[in-house]
Amino acid sequence: MSRRRITVIPGDGIGPSIIESAVQILDKVGCDFEYDYAQAGLIALEQDGNLLPEKTLELIEQNGITLKGPLTTPVGTGFTSINVSLRKKFGLYANLRPVHSFVGTKSRYENVDIITVRENTEGMYSGVGQIVSEDGNSAEAKSIVTREGARKIVTFAYELARRENRKKVTAVHKANIMKSTSGLFLEVAREVAALYPDIESDEMIVDATCMNLVMYPERFDVIVTTNLFGDIVSDLCAGLVGGLGMAPGANIGEQAAIFEAVHGSAPDITGQDIANPTSVILASIQMLEYLGMNDKAEKIKNAVTEVIASGDRTTRDLGGTAGTKEFTQSILERL
Fold first, then answer.
1. C-alpha span between 234 and 215 (Å, rounded)
2. Where is the Isopropylmalate dehydrogenase-like domain (predicted)?
3. Could you count the other beta carbons within 10 Å of the beta carbon of residue 30?
4. CA atoms within a 13 Å half-sphere pointing along the CA-CB vector of 126
5. I need a surface site. Which of 136, 211, 220, 237 has the fewest CB within 10 A?
6. Are 253 and 200 in contact (CB under 8 A)?
7. Domains of the chain from N-terminus onward
8. What is the pLDDT of residues 277-307, one digit of tens each?
9. Which residues are the active-site residues?
10. What is the DSSP secondary structure assignment for residue 64, as one 8-state letter?
């Protein structure tokens, strides 16, 4: 039986070092993957003259599963977001952002367990109709929400809730003001909710959602929403459990899935061996769960939980003094 091939994109800045941590841990737990390394981002631009080389796209398509470090899209005109490009290219319509409280982190709460399911290809990030007037005094952008897109993402959220024995799905919207786009999303969310009577359904305006997440995070279980709101709400949720360093992300489509660290490439600390690799390690756990390798996913999660709770050789953002390699070694020893 041939070994499962995984495309690995180390990325920019701290990406290669934290990806190395995740790969070591996957190997230690006995995943037996074959890794096809590919470049994207600034390092690819320097080496290949392209932020997303054709070879990288081919490997993503060929293997179907990708583990990705943070990428840098150069600021300024002429460069489209690499992550947006990947989502469009491979139809990665669902962005899955779970957050879970870890004992030992610097966070205000101890009981957070929320999954944000974000529509990943439509809405304000569709890239359609971006116009700035000739005199530079006005700008406009178009938001597109389709019935099909809304149905796919809301159905994804309910199927996820059912599969993971979650109790409630909250549809987050702004239909009171954005009556066309958010209104259509909410209408579809209600239609889909009726098909899942075994799961409690709730709906909430996005600004009220943000307030309630900060005050009463225990009220939320699964959140499903449109692209822009999902981007904001998922980062807010990460703040509830210690920041983006503790939050993984998955981009899932019909034929491909990309699992990633959701934070930036942190060029200011590159090469200093101080980055927290937890985000991409948790993303690799998502990847294993997606592949049905739940036993190995559980082993890694338990090891990470133990290390953070003990404070044994944790990184600075977790209150320790260890570097990336030492923190990783602590996890490997527990495995």
1. 16
2. 5-331
3. 11
4. 15
5. 136
6. no
7. 1-95+243-335 (3.40.718.10), 108-240 (3.40.718.10)
8. 999 999 999 999 999 999 999 999 999 999 9
9. 125, 174, 207, 231, 235
10. S
